[in-house]
Amino acid sequence: MQPLLVVDTLSKSYGTIQACDRISFDLYPGQVLGIIGESGSGKTTLLHAIAGNLAIDQGRLTYSGSSGTVLELNQIAAGDRRLLMRTEWGFVHQNPRDGLRMYVTAGANIAERLMNVGARHYGNIRTAAAHWLSQVEIPTDRMDDLPSTFSGGMQQRLQLARVLVTQPRLILMDEPTGGLDVSVQARLLDLIRSLVRTFNLSVILVTHDIGVVRLLAHRLIVMQNGNIVESGLTDQVLDDPQHPHTQQLVNSTLMP
Amino acid sequence: MSLSHPIDLTQPLKLDLPPSNSSRPDLEPGFNFAYLDESTKRSIRRGLLKAVAIPGHQIPFSSREMPMSYGWGTGGIQVTASVIGQTDVLKVIDQGADDTTNAVNIRRFFQRVCGVETTEHTEQATLIQTRHRIPETPLHAGQIMVYQVPIPEPLRWIEPSEVETSKMHALADYGAMYVRLYEDITAFGQITTAYDYPVMVHGRYMMRPSPIPRFDNPKLHMSPALQLFGAGREKRLYAVPPYTQVKSLDFDDHPFTVETWDNACEFCGSTASYLDEVVINDQGDRLWICSDTDYCQQHRSAQPSQPA
Description:
The structure holds two protein chains of two kinds. Chain A is an alpha/beta fold. Chain A contains ten helices and ten strands. In chain A, the strands form two sheets. A six-stranded mixed beta sheet of chain A has the order 6-7-8-3-9-10, sandwiched between helices. Chain B is of the alpha/beta class. Chain B has two domains: 25-248, Bacterial phosphonate metabolism protein PhnH (Rossmann fold, 3-Layer(aba) Sandwich); 260-303, no CATH class. Chain B has seven helices and twelve strands. In chain B, helix 3 (101-114) links the parallel strand 2 and strand 3 (117-118). In chain B, helix 1 (38-53) packs across helix 2 (74-83). Chain A binds chain B through residues 78-79, 82, 101, 104-105, 107-108, 111-112, 115-118, 120-123, 125, 144, and chain B through 167, 171, 173, 175-176, 178-179, 182-183, 185-187, 251-254.
């Protein structure tokens, strides 16, 4: 099977701080890849570099598009990259305020992504928005309410709906459960897991919460100081950590 | 190195300047023709040429201090000053009227610094500076419309960053603008944006048509007149050349429409023009009159007089 995304020796520094040091990994279709590490280990920088939000210093990003074309992401035009982020890719922010327009209705938030790729039929846009709201378990009668009237968990699910409406293949998630209480977290994780299965999504999931990756991720990458210190199957890495840093991360987690 | 000098310094310096205002007693002394100096006018015309070459695209220009405050048409007045010539006939309107403060003062300003002929009749004018309206009388080839623009950036309320809006224009990435129209339909069942209704120019650039009512948007489309836009405070110029396609944004199932009224103009009886609603007393009685005073006058005089 051909990888969906190949990250090859990706590096990014901020002055003298090496945030990502020659990171390489492959992501296969339908795979959920977890990236864990303590704060400042470079995991969020890596995610934003993959998403194209940051210019990278060196390295290659190769993506196999849905039409079978292989795209070198650092060489394609800015417009194509932007289109890719809005169609086949999606980004779920830790803070829903970064991923949503808080002063337009929930429906418009979903509609924007469709209108960005050329949808111009109001009725069809409404239908699609309602469909995806119900997919993320938000009652469709809340469609014309502002996201600021939603709870934190609902805002996060709205962000998911906004991304899912163009039926992406790859979703980048930055701490999607951050700031949510445990029961809401559990519901959101459950939803993400079923959506991943239903729509055969590939996900790169950045988090510092080991419980989240254990539940969602098939494979796991552990980062420290901009380097990958350990990678492998999630259960294998978490149950039999080899690197001292991973051992420390696993040991410092409270296990109920 | 040759010592011979092309200019004879024993003679008074003769420069190739346009006629000075000092020879005309009716003109304000001490000013160049049309107030701005020649190099400023030339630099603005250079910007206008760029603007005409890329319809709807905003061109930065070095906006000058004008003898009026920002928001009163400093952009329009600089464009007018740059393109006006001795033989031009100038008309200035404000909300369709020739007799409101802004229109009267700008017209008088150009009378004093140019001495050009002015008119209130749309078809006689060669140059029309306008705030918030396009005349009802159809424009003809050879005429120039100059619009006063407060905010030139159509995406400004969608995206506050100038860097990002520049990218959006470069990539023709205008989907976000439809969010506003979507919200209108969702809240009110129809698009309620009444003025400054965004348009696509020549199928490429999104443009704010300045705060004209959306009633006037269709007049921008394939207009035989040259249309120039100047934003003084924001320091931007843009243009719609003659016979350019201008399409108002809409949805397939909610097409663009213009305002309609249940009333006819109280003075001239027109049902085809843009009507202003005027409250006439403390009881809240109101009447509807043409916003275009010149059109209203002509429409009235063209009718047989009614018995009193």
